[in-house]
Amino acid sequence: MTTLLFIGDIVGRPGRDLLRHGLSALASHHNVDLIIVNVENAASGHGITPDIANDLFEYGVHVMTGGNHTWDKKDIFPYIAKQPRMIRPANYPDGAPGLGRYVARAENGVKVGVINAMGRVFMTPLDDPFRVVLEEIDLVRADGAQLVFVDFHAEATSEKVAMGWHLDGKVTAVVGTHTHVQTADERVLPKGTAYITDVGMTGPHDSVIGVDRTAIVHRFLSAMPQRFETASENPRLNGVVVQADETTGFATSITRINVSMADLEALAVTPVAAR
């Protein structure tokens, strides 16, 4: 059995601090073999820098995924072109730096193909993700992947649900990102694919999807431009733990995680034998 931990959109310093202080304890508590994190909002809520990416790898992250904010910091262009463990949506046109897939070797030796794709409803009109993701699955399978994990970064719940059904029986898990609000529909679909519409956000939850709530509310009230700053209050880590059978390639369970800094600190001092 292989245990995969996916952590939803890291938002700014509050999100990064949650990983810095608690990722090791969380992974130990769940006996995690591979850690995947969506990082497209890790730098002040917009994009990611090479220094932040290197810090996250040092905290224990194995593979990073992205989305529509992947390119917000221009110095990430050459970094992502050279760092295969940071992937971006596979359905960007030819010429975009980097790749939309990576085959990682988990701590237990199992090869896990990680694929990133982006939706098109209310988003940038990229190549068809429903077609591209099938091509990416073939490529990671050809590279020996025993399990396949898909981060589908999309706005519309209908598009995410459709992708889940499209890939049921073809991959180990399909998880949605982008909306920063954790949904309560996690389940293993009939043919063995773990699914959740949105994993949620790792960052300040007393906010409007990570942004200072005062500015957002004023924008709605006045329709006037506002300066958006990353919030800081009530940081929480959102994620899912997927248990999978590498002999079949399918999931056996998916469990939501929604924990505070205090919860993570408590895990860090819990004796291993009691976990």
Characterise this structure.
- This protein is α/β, with parallel strands linked by helices.
- The protein is 29% helix and 25% strand.
- The protein has helices at residues 12-29, 50-59, 76-82, 129-142, 157-167, 213-222, 261-269; strands at 2-7, 34-38, 63-65, 101-105, 111-118, 147-153, 173-177, 187-188, 194-196, 203-204, 235-245, 250-260.
- It is globular, with a radius of gyration of 18 Å.
What structural class results from the helix and strand content?
alpha/beta
CATH architecture: 4-Layer Sandwich
Count every beta strand, where a strand is a DSSP E run of 2 or more residues: 12
| End-to-end CA span | 18 Å
Helix fraction, binned, reads: 25-40%
Q: So what's the overall shape?
A: globular
Main beta sheet, described?
Answer: 6 strands, mixed
Question: Going by CATH, what is the homologous superfamily?
Answer: Metallo-dependent phosphatases
CATH structural fold name: Purple Acid Phosphatase, chain A, domain 2
